[in-house]
Every structure is written in C-alpha cells, then in structure tokens.
Specification:
- The structure is a single chain.
- With about 375 residues, the chain is α+β, with helices and mostly antiparallel strands.
- The protein has three domains: about 5-170 and about 370-375, Nucleotidyltransferase, domain 5, CATH 3.30.420.40; about 185-225 and about 310-360, 2-Layer Sandwich (Nucleotidyltransferase, domain 5); about 225-305, Alpha-Beta Complex (Actin, Chain A, domain 4).
- The chain contains twelve helices and 19 strands.
- Strand 2 (about 10-20) and strand 3 form a beta hairpin.
- The relative contact order is 0.15.
C-alpha cells in the first residue's frame, strides 16, 4: 500500500511523502506545492476545486466554500458555530451529516466538499508521483473532538482512499523533529515547545526527549483561533475608516466584504517586513448619485498590535496553560518551535521570545504535512 500525507489546512491543502528517507512536499499541477482549500460552483453548475474555485472567490463569495477545516464535524447548532458561520459569504447550517453548505440552491455537506478537495489533492499527487496512493495520514489539531476527526476520515474515504489514519498535528511534528535531530544543539533539547498558528486554528504542545532520543508529547491545548480572525479584525477597522468618511449608508456588498478581507490579509503580511501598509480599494461602494466610493487608508504596525494584540496574548495564555499542565516554567524549555503561516508575524515571534526568554525557531511552512509524511513512511 502506498501511503501519502494529506494536510487539509484552513487555507491550503498539501500532500507529502517520504522520498529516500526524507519527507518531501509533492509538487502538484504547474509545480504548485499545494492547492487552496476552496470548493465552489460556477454559473453552469459545475463544481470547482482548488485554484479554479479560489479564482472566483472575490467575485462570487456566496458560491464559494472556504474554511472547511474550521467547521468540519462541528455542532452546527452551537452558539460558537453560529458566530463563526455568520462571517462567511455562503450559507452554512445543520444537516443530516453535519454542517451543510448552501450555494446556488445546491446543498452539499462539508464532508462531501472536503472529499472533493482531498480527491483533487490525491489525484494531482498521484499524477506527480506516477503511482496510485491508496492510504493517507491526515493531521488534525490535538484539541479536535472525535466527531471532527471522524468527519476528516469520512471525507478521505469519499476521496477514494482505502485506509486512513487521523493523527494529531503535534504528533506529526514530534516525528519530524525526531527525524531531523542531527546536531549537538538538537541533542541537548530535552524539553521542546510547539506553537502552531495557522489560518483558523491554534495548537500548543510540550514535548520531552525520551531516552532513545525521540520526543514524547506531555501536554497539549488549542483553540479555533488563527490568522483569519486577525484578518477579520483588520477588515473591520478598514470598514470603519470607510464609513467614517462616507457614512454607514454606503452599503458594502458581499463582494466588497471579501475585498476588504483580502486587503486586510495582504496588509497583515506586508507588515511582517514593513512598518506601514497602504490599502487602496477603488469603488468599494456607490454613493447616492451612483458614483464610486473608494477606500484609501493606511495601517501602521502599531495599529496591527492594537487590533490583534489581545488575540496573540490569548495564544500566549494557552501556551502558559500547557506549561502549567506539565509542571514546568517557560525558562525550563530548551527549544521553542513555531509553525503555521500566521506564526510568521513579527508580533507573534516577539511575544514568544518574551514568554520563553529566547527566540523561537521557524519550522517550514508545510511542517505538519512533512511530519505526517514521516509517519506515513514509518
């Protein structure tokens, strides 16, 4: 049986395998190292997956399914679910097989939509590798419930896989770090902390070195908190600036809200390297005379800290709760590792350095998939 790691992330999905003993991301169509975690339906009623689906997100957010990882296997009747779902451009509610999306009058469960995405990812990986992949390791956050894990497995079976293993992301990463242990400094790391901030989830874990050299998970915690929530905070700030200029009667459509979200994400990423980002959105709305109303604004790094600092502090508090559960102080941690695209931010890195008294090491963007590939090849 040929086994592949399939990492269904909030924003992107990645395939990885063990190649010559080394975990490697599988290059997909056009050399891409992943596909957007997006499923959509076009004007002719055809289902679109990955890049084709994301291409219409800006113009047709009500016909495009995103953030599947956040909602897959969740209780659609819960208050927490509704708060998150209200931010979506498409309809999402309860169904007989878990959360159900409604787009263009069509209903599809998120398990089915995720199955379409995993089928596309698996198919492109098979074409790239030139062989059938009939088994998969799927990493999920350690705090995910049994219902969420089962939903991931069900989606993978719908993608045509014969055997599926759903594993904790922290376990996958411990496998990756154990496999990469090759320097004296790594050998000396008896206690390791993992801080993962992705598009929609946060995971934290404490690992300890075993006598045989591997890393054992001691404590974990996490929450539905990721880069997308930071984006929404920034988008709300931009919308407020727009209304301060033109008044709240300047209606912003679903397309306009999606433009704000994309601009917010771009500004956030820009501020990883710069101290100020400029946002320009022509014709965000129309005035009473039908003329275009443009958004021209700037966002300083200080603004970003003010808007999102409490969310980053929340991840720090969760990290401290993991340390308390293990009976350790931050000063006793030998190595700190960051993973997930949202963990690239300077604010995150600075907060973690202050908490642990040392700079953290950035793992590769696709570290979770690579770790799952180590497990797939074991």
């Amino acid at each position: 049986m040929s086994v592949v790691a399939l990492d269904l992330g909030t924003s992107n999905a990645v395939a990885a395998v063990l190649d010559g003993g080394r975990p490697t991301v599988v290059p997909l169509l056009g050399g891409a190292l992943g596909i957007p975690s997006v499923v959509a339906i076009d004007e002719r009623g055809r289902w679109l997956v990955g890049r084709d689906a994301k291409a219409q997100l800006l113009s047709k957010p009500d016909q495009t399914i995103v953030a599947m990882k956040t909602f897959l296997g969740r209780d659609a009747d819960s208050a927490a679910f509704r708060v998150e779902a209200d931010e979506l451009g498409y309809g999402l509610g309860p169904g007989p097989n878990g959360p159900m999306a409604t787009i263009c009058g069509e209903e599809i469960s998120l398990i089915e939509a995720s199955g379409l995405l995993l089928r596309e990812l698996r198919g492109q990986a098979q074409d790239s590798l030139g062989k059938v992949l009939d088994g998969a390791v799927l990493p999920v956050p350690a705090y995910f419930t049994d219902e969420q894990r089962q939903a991931f497995a069900d989606a993978a079976y719908l993608a045509g896989l014969e055997k599926v293993w759903v594993v904790d992301e922290t376990k996958a990463l411990s496998s990756l770090l154990s496999a990469r242990r090759s320097t004296p400094s790594r050998e000396e790391e008896k206690t390791v902390f993992l801080y993962g901030l992705g598009g929609g989830v946060f995971d934290a874990a404490l690992l300890e070195r075993e006598e045989r050299g591997g890393l054992e998970i001691v404590a974990t915690s996490g929450e539905d908190l990721g880069g997308s929530r930071l984006d929404r905070r920034i988008a709300k700030h931009l919308k407020t600036a727009f209304w301060q200029r033109y008044g709240e009667e300047a209606a912003i459509t679903d397309i306009g809200r999606q433009r704000l979200l994309e601009a917010a994400e771009a500004a956030k990423i820009h501020l990883d390297d710069e101290d100020e980002a400029f946002v320009s959105l022509p014709c965000l709305s129309n005035g009473s005379d039908g003329g275009p109303l443009d958004l021209e604004s700037s966002l300083a790094r200080e603004d970003l800290i003010r808007l999102t600092g409490d969310l980053i502090l929340q991840t720090v508090e969760i990290s401290r709760s993991v340390l308390r559960a293990a009976g350790l102080d931050a000063s006793e941690i030998d190595g700190v590792y960051l993973y997930g695209r949202a963990a690239k931010s300077r604010e995150v890195q600075a907060a973690i350095a202050r908490t642990f008294g040392k700079p953290a090491v950035r793992l590769p963007d696709d570290a979770t998939a690579l770790g799952a590939a180590v497990m797939a090849g074991a």
